[in-house]
Amino acid sequence: MKAIRRFTVRPVLxxxxxxxxxxxxxxxxxxxxxxxxxxxxxxxxxxxSSGGDPVRLLGSVRPAQLAELAGDRRFLxxxxxxxxxxxxxxxxxxxxxGRTDGLPAAVAYFSPEFxxxxxxxxxxxxxxxxxxxxxxxxxxxxxxxIGVGLLYRHGYxxxxxxxxxxxxxxxxxxxxxxxxxxxxxxxxxxxxxxxxALPRGRAxxxxxxxxxxxxxxxxMLDSDVEENDLGERGVTDRLYGGGSEHRLLQEMLLGIGGVxxxxxxxxxxxxxxxxxxxxxxxxxxxxGLERIAELCDGGGLDFDAALEAVRAGTVFTTHTPVPAGIDxxxxxxxxxxxxxxxxxxxxxxxxxxxxGRETYPGGEPSLFNMAVMxxxxxxxANGVSLLHGRVSREMFSGLWPGFDPDEVxxxxxxxxxxxxTWVAPExxxxxxxxxxxxxxxxxxxxxxxxxxxxVADIPDEDIWExxxxxxxxxxxxxxxxxxxxxxxxxxxxAELGWIDGVLDPDVLTIGFARRVPSYKRLTLMLRDRDRxxxxxxxxxxxxxxxxxxxxxxxxxxxxRLIQELVRFADDPRVRHRxxxxxxxxxxxxxxxxxxxxxxxxNPLRPLEACGTSGMKAALNGCLNLSVLxxxxxxxxxxxxxxxxxxxxxxxxxxxxxxxxxxxxxxxLLEQRVAPRFYERGRAGLPDRWIxxxxxxxxxLGPKVLAGRMVxxxxxxxxxxxxxxxxxxxxxxxxxxxxxxxxVRAAWPEVTVDHLETSSPVAExxxxxxxxxxxxxxxxxxxxxxxxxxxxxxxxxxVQAVSGRVDEEDHITDATTVxxxxxxxxxxxxxxxxxxxxxxxxxxxxxxxxRILPSHRLLASGAEMxxxxxxxxxxxEGAGVLLR
Length: 883
What we know:
Elements: H1 19-25, H2 33-42, H3 44-49, H4 54-60, H5 63-70, H6 73-91, E1 107-110, H7 126-141, E2 145-150, E3 158-161, E4 167-170, E5 182-183, E6 193-197, E7 203-213, E8 216-222, H8 230-233, H9 244-269, E9 276-280, H10 287-298, H11 303-312, E10 314-317, E11 328-330, H12 331-336, H13 349-355, E12 367-369, H14 370-376, E13 380-383, H15 386-395, E14 411-412, H16 419-422, H17 425-435, H18 437-446, H19 460-488, E15 508-513, H20 529-536, E16 543-548, H21 556-569, E17 578-581, H22 586-595, E18 598-601, H23 613-618, E19 623-627, H24 630-635, E20 641-644, H25 654-678, H26 687-700, H27 706-727, H28 730-746, E21 751-757, E22 779-787, E23 796-805, E24 811-818, E25 820-821, E26 830-838, E27 845-853, E28 880-882
Parallel strand pairs: 1-2, 1-9, 2-8, 9-10, 10-13, 13-14, 15-16, 15-18, 16-17, 18-19, 19-20
Antiparallel strand pairs: 3-4, 5-7, 6-7, 7-8, 11-12, 21-22, 22-26, 23-24, 23-27, 25-26, 27-28
Helix pairs in contact: 1-6, 2-6, 7-27, 9-10, 10-11, 11-27, 11-28, 17-18, 19-22
């Protein structure tokens, strides 16, 4: 019989065991080995069956067993130590508290998904895992973040396979009362709520759940409340589910409702109000509109002044290297959900629509672009690797017309991973034996070292024994999961005896696990199946491959890729050497990162924004075999692994390109990777392989830490944003908005009328008339006559721009030098600017001048997207000076 109602009965812990509840509700246990060991000791079998979830564990332990533990002095001593350690971790000073450079009082960090632990399944892939690692690293460093997301009733989907290898999705119901979260309550004990106005007088209500991530509160909004109609209750049903309106409502709740949740949390707890708001991708972009409305309603500002104040304290991170990956909504749909009959009635709908308008060439005027809005509402923006920063500047350069892509104000902070979450306990113990547990923990979490030189002192045999132990654990885990997967596919026990022979703990093991969009090329390894079979079955140097990944439920192309891989892996000839494991998630990922020898990544370059899975593998001594994309393009060295040659930039069709790059992959595996693994030195160890593992840990390990990443965010983005926020009080915001309006109106009158050099260079007799020569180290005097219209010298900066030039006379690697006005304007109202130009490089060299808006409160000269350059008849123009 089916129950008509479901609810959770929570255990009542004996008084001596009450600290267990505090430990279970703070997700620090997910990366703190001592706390996990404590929970495991409560009941090892139930701990395993609960999936390592303390909340589920405590809900399943018998009262008699709890009473027995309450009298166990040894257990109580361990419990007291763990509780004291947590309190010290949460309340003590850390890296952030030792800084004195005007850091923000708090930062609100918004993301549509957070991957904290498998016990809180609110993530789909890399974006969520990155967000979770960001919170954990911020906690370790003492950065006062408030995380903001949604609590999805079904999370993402669980994946199984049909008998013929087709992905099937399942959506288990998640009961918040069985998750490691608590409901935020008002002072009178009633549940805290936020509400959004919907068209036709309806409303969307949401309650607020809090997941405590070490020192960091993560606020999660849940619309499944009785006050809502059925449709509104389903807004937070699934991560990345539903149609356009469903997604729009999710993103309005995340952005607008999220700001209201932050205000409620700070009011109820006394937490400092955030000075900086950071939106992780464009999904939460509406947060800027809510903050504008706050300033208009309660701060007495008009829209333009409020926009400037909001921009100053906002950071936007883009993770998308292709326009197709950005959320875009029909403008009419957006318009229907804002204005007098819906949300934010005090803001003109046209002003809202203008923020998301694609004003660049090729843009679609009928669509509302969330990334474009995110960039317009944030004074600071970044990509997630150096290469992705360049790609983003190219992709969004149309928003800053007249500027070279290199000058587009989008920087980059390369992602990192939270080592305490992803490093195997065995790796941690090896480090602790070398330098002590506390120093090892500090090194893994802080991100303050450039090198881990102590790795050099670990004996070769210890490194190799560690790698074999982790590989053996992976083999056991793969067999267990593969057996369960085949049972789900309908196989009987009698059919599955072969699984006992799947994988070999002494064979080179390659991992490939990630989401399955087409650009990640799950099946590139299958381009030449005979050659792959030869590699898998090589009599002396075999390889084995473990593959996992999920396709989006609506992506039949991705599902076909999975089916193709599964059918190959089902072949009795190779099924002991290659496996596909369904239901990829955090728990599985940790085992893969620990046990693989090589991590494979072969996306279409440059479509991988960063890709952090290889970072997690590297922290466990796994070598990377990857296309030079994302973070690998930035930090690759032959010491750390291998770079797969790419055919990008060549006029090949996609099929030919895949053939070329697959052949390069096979060559690397056959000629370099496998021989290096199986080659033995005098002591019977693979000396050169072990040295690569050692170099990976020593040099690459410190780079890939989330602690390093969060430090960069604090220093390069959060702190400048906090300073800008403080500088943009009401009066300054009004001043800046009025100044921008005046400059925009007057800019058509700004001109470069004449440009000349005060010390002419000698003409080269053999060169074209426009070409001249000069000696290295000499200095030219530039003199430029400009028209500023109604603007004055305080409103602009006139710059000389110089550098090497390419064959089309485009300046590369440019240097800018401000020129100074010489006296008052002439009778025609023109100003003369002068300054020196030092010739500091040999080779083809050129210069030009330009005029930019200038104000003390601008973050960059390109911020307004306004620039004036010489016309064709402005004098000498940009002559090539050195050949």
